[in-house]
Amino acid sequence: MSATREQGSWRDPLLKGLEVYRVGGAVRDALLGWPVYDNDWVVVGATPEMMRARGFKPVGRDFPVFLHPDTAEEYALARTERKAGHGYVGFEVHASPDVTLEEDLQRRDLTINAMAEAPTGDIIDPYGGRQDIEARVLRHVSDAFSEDPLRVLRTARFLARYAERGFRIAEETQALMAQVSESGELEHLAAERVWVESEKALGEPVPKAYFQALKACGALEVWFPELAGDAFDEGVAAMAQVPEHGATQSHWRYARLVSALDDHQRDALAARLKLPKAVAQLATHSALTQRFLAGAQTPDAALKWLARLDGWRRPEQVATQLALVEVLSPSQAATLRFAWQQAAAVSPKALVDAGYQGAEIGKALDQERLVAIQRALSAGG
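Structure tokens predicted for Polynucleotide adenylyltransferase (381 residues):
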């Protein structure tokens, strides 16, 4: 984000007379030299009534966060939080004009996320975030870190983002992550929230670091127990081989991560995480493709592979898996693509016109498709 746009936010007439700071990720990424796309702001000394009077729109009835009426950026009242239940939503929030900026920053997860920028450009850093950036360390701000189990996943995700820059998790933070894993608090997280964090991590530069960090602190066995055994190393390595099209990178990486699991394990993990249907299906189809490529690519095997992909009704699913074939077995990709095209060209209407009826049509279709695949594989071989 340009300096003009940044300073322009502070010069906004709606903010006149308010004590406003940019906080969190925007400050962190600017210091790291990363592009800043989104801003989060903290307002000190204000009340909800003051924000509403200026046209800011409350996000929720009991949560002190407001959206700017023009930019939709988030402006949160300075607040503190106290643990009052299980999971990452079990907190009582206290927001009032007497909460200081330092108190607001203290409730955050990592020191690199607990910095603020003043309108003057000065960095307010009461917990050593800048020093930890220079030392390439992910360190918790306070022992309150252990009150929010989601922070275990977030810390692992930040490692996936910054590992290639030499970041590591501080030993004392690793110890707290292990403590949370052992406490049973992770089990109170919503499956959808676990998947959101994991999906983000799968899109980071070093996704394996996320799962390695979860394994190191015992969190992997809570939410990904199927991966905690021998399948872990194979799955982590497989994430390095993903297509560039057919699905998002994070979804391909998940499909490859679980490629070493059997069908029962893969389905159990998908159910536990409440995966979106498209992601679970991609993982299932990718496992089919991997098994097909590992065996003999006979016409019969190819026909069964295409049928199990529901290729006759959903040809885009075959196209997606052919993208995986190009990565895993590039020498076979062109031949299998040709075989698919020839099989897909077999016309049910032509068989009906030829006099086939009822169940005979299906049998004749399979036979004609098998012949088409046989010819294509022979031509390609």
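The two ends are 54 Å apart (CA to CA).
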